[in-house]
Amino acid sequence: MDPASAKLIGAGLAAIGTGAAAIGVGNLFGQFLQGALRNPSAADGQFGRLIFGFAVTEALGIFALLIAFLLLFT
Predict the structure, then answer these.
(1) How confident is the model at residue 24 (pLDDT cuts 50, 70, 90)?
(2) What is the pTM of this model?
(3) 48 is in which domain, residue-wise?
(4) Separation between Cα atoms, residue 5 and residue 29, nearest integer Å
(5) Under a CB-based contact definition with an 8 Å cutoff, are residues 18 and 61 in contact?
């Protein structure tokens, strides 16, 4: 296998992380909404944790995208 095709395969595998981050964000907000509908009085106390989880999940997706770009363009 030549190095150019290995770079493309590696970038494609690294880009899977961005899709996984999107699934994680959807799951995060869906579970928060489900919990907020079951217990509306506790929803305000959990909102900060929701935003922190969103930020961490998006950061991991951006890191995966960065790795994919580094593999493609270096």
Answers:
(1) very high
(2) 0.80
(3) 3-73
(4) 37
(5) yes
